[in-house]
Amino acid sequence: MDLKVQRLYLCITLLLFPCLLCSAFAEKTIRHEFESEHKDPQFEEILFLTMAVELLDAGFSSTNQNGKTDYVLQTQYTANDDITDVKLSLYRTDKQDQLLAVTSFSAPVDYDFEGKLASAVKNLLITGELQSNAGSDTLIRGLITANDTELFLPEKKPAFSIPDITIGLGAVFFLGSMTDYSQYGETGYFRVGSRLPLGKWNFSPGFRLLVFRTKLDSKFSDNALWVTTAGVDCIVSTPRLGRFRFAGIVSGGPAFLTFSGKDGTLSKTDFFADAGLSVRYIFKKGIYAGAQVRYVAIVDTDMYISGILPMISVGKEL
Question: Are 202 and 196 in contact (CB under 8 A)?
Answer without folding.
Answer: yes
